[in-house]
Write a structure and sequence with these properties.
The protein is globular. It is built from eleven helices and 17 strands. The strands form five sheets. Strands 1, 2, 8, 9 and 10 form a five-stranded antiparallel β-sheet that branches. The protein has helices at residues 22-56, 59-75, 94-107, 113-129, 139-144, 212-223, 288-310, 313-316, 330-353, 372-375, 389-402; strands at 10-15, 159-161, 166-170, 175-179, 184-187, 193-196, 200-203, 226-228, 231-236, 239-248, 257-266, 272-276, 279-283, 355-360, 406-409, 419-421, 427-429. It has three domains: 10-20 and 158-248, no CATH class; 35-73 and 86-144, no CATH class; 257-287 and 336-409, 2-Layer Sandwich (Nucleotidyltransferase, domain 5), CATH 3.30.420.
């Protein structure tokens, strides 16, 4: 990977629109489901062939002996035990990878070769990096010694594809995707056997107000401003989606004055207040949406809790299906999204004004009680919750540092109260 692109790989879900021809749409979904089941069988067979190859090479005994030596090394005297023993076995040698690929290619003949390789590469990365449950050893080490379980896949798995067998394009009206994920045998004109695949051409939903961000990202992917990374074809609740993965380019260096400072602080009547060069301005507007969303989520959670208290066990559900589960993280997710939008706006203002330094005044525990972000929408709560101020500071540092802007925090929530002495010499906190 070149240094042209930076940062973590991001993902956006794109819903695939059904075809007008219902028969063709049904056949297409059937092909995708078959490919997804091929991936499921492929990954289960992957671990079986991996373990069989290592046992044939005698690597299970080597790993077992290494575990015993490592345990003895830990129990020995630290001054005389010597160097720590290293594992003599690699999780995925090249000869093992070639053997597994040859077996899986013959078993999963209905899957496109590129999708097969992408699925194998992803599983190889997980195999080498995952740690076993309740153990300090790797998962593959315990599985090879019959001391841990191997992962199994009991449901169809997403189908991977990348720019080698897929692309995104705009036909002038809508955004569409073309990809090849299946494989079927056929013959040439001379009667020789060969393999082909269907070229799937589908339209994704990017219309409306909610599709503005999706269209912007797809335009960047098509123009090359964002790198098109490995993506997935996913089925969820009877609908098919494309989870598009991309990586952005490096931010161009901006000219800022390190002597200019933008002061950011939470306000009382609106979310944030900024000040630069003797001029004050609002950030994130009046925050009317914050009060509405917060109050609505709290009211929903309160009513569901009341119904949950008197409901039967079957109505309460289990785990993720519990009646109160969907609303528990709504407020936390909204706060994070709000902070991300605020930080992006602050950094954009700092670049436009040429400020090379941002001073964030983080409120103390006493001051935050009167801030808009901590009080808006809390009228009906017995104990108002707080706002993640440290999250703002962390997001601000990560975003501003990429643009070459320094961030300084001028407040602390752990500020101690002043102390005073009583007549008996006992130290107490001043109220």
């Amino acid at each position: 990977m070149t240094d042209e692109y930076k940062g973590a790989i991001r993902q956006i879900p794109l819903k695939i629109m059904p075809l007008e021809d219902k028969t063709a749409w049904k056949d297409m979904k059937t092909r995708w489901l078959n490919c997804s089941q091929h991936i499921q069988r492929l990954l289960n067979r992957y671990w079986f062939e991996w373990k069989a190859w290592h046992i044939t090479e005698g690597n299970d005994a080597k790993v077992r002996q290494w575990m015993a030596d490592l345990s003895a090394w830990h129990n020995a005297d630290s001054k005389t035990r010597g160097k720590k023993p290293n594992c003599p076995v690699k999780p995925m040698p090249s000869s093992c990878a070639k053997h597994i690929y040859a077996v899986l290619k013959s078993v999963c003949g209905g899957l496109n070769s590129r999708s097969l390789v992408l699925a194998m590469n992803k599983e190889a990365g997980d195999l080498a990096s995952r740690v076993a449950s309740k153990s300090a050893f790797k998962r593959w080490q315990r599985a090879l010694c019959d001391m841990g379980e191997m992962p199994t896949y009991s449901r169809p798995v997403p189908i991977p594809f990348d720019k080698a067998n897929g692309k995104a394009y705009n036909d002038g009206e809508h955004w569409r995707f073309q990809f090849r994920v299946d494989r079927f045998p056929t013959t040439t004109k001379k009667g020789k056997p060969k393999a082909e695949s269907h070229l799937e051409d589908v339209r994704v939903m990017t219309s409306g107000r909610k599709g503005v961000k999706l269209r912007r990202i797809l335009e960047k992917v098509e123009s090359g401003d964002c790198k098109f990374c490995g993506s997935n074809l996913v089925e969820r609740d009877g609908q098919w989606y494309i989870h598009l993965c991309y990586r952005e380019r490096k931010d161009e260096a901006v000219e800022v004055d390190p002597n200019k400072t933008l002061v950011l602080r939470p306000a009382k009547t609106h979310p944030f207040s900024g000040r630069s060069e003797g001029r004050s301005f609002w950030i994130m507007g009046k925050g009317a949406l914050l009060k509405h969303v917060r109050a609505a989520d709290y009211a929903t959670n309160r009513t569901r809790n009341e119904s949950f208290r008197y409901g039967s066990k079957s109505r309460r559900g289990h785990g993720r299906n519990r009646a109160v589960y969907p609303t528990k993280n709504n407020v936390a997710n909204f706060k994070k999204t709000f902070n991300q939008q605020a930080v992006a706006q602050v950094v954009r203002i700092a670049i436009d004004r040429g400020c090379g330094r941002i001073a964030f005044r983080q409120p103390t525990a006493i001051v935050e009680r009167s801030r808009f972000l901590a009080t808006s929408g809390n009228e009906y709560r017995r104990s108002p919750d707080s706002w993640p101020w440290y999250q703002i500071e962390t997001l601000l540092k990560n975003t501003a540092n990429r643009a070459g802007i320094e961030v300084v925090s001028t407040g602390s929530r752990k500020k101690k109260r002043p102390q005073r002495k009583t007549k008996k010499g006992v130290t107490t906190s001043q109220v």
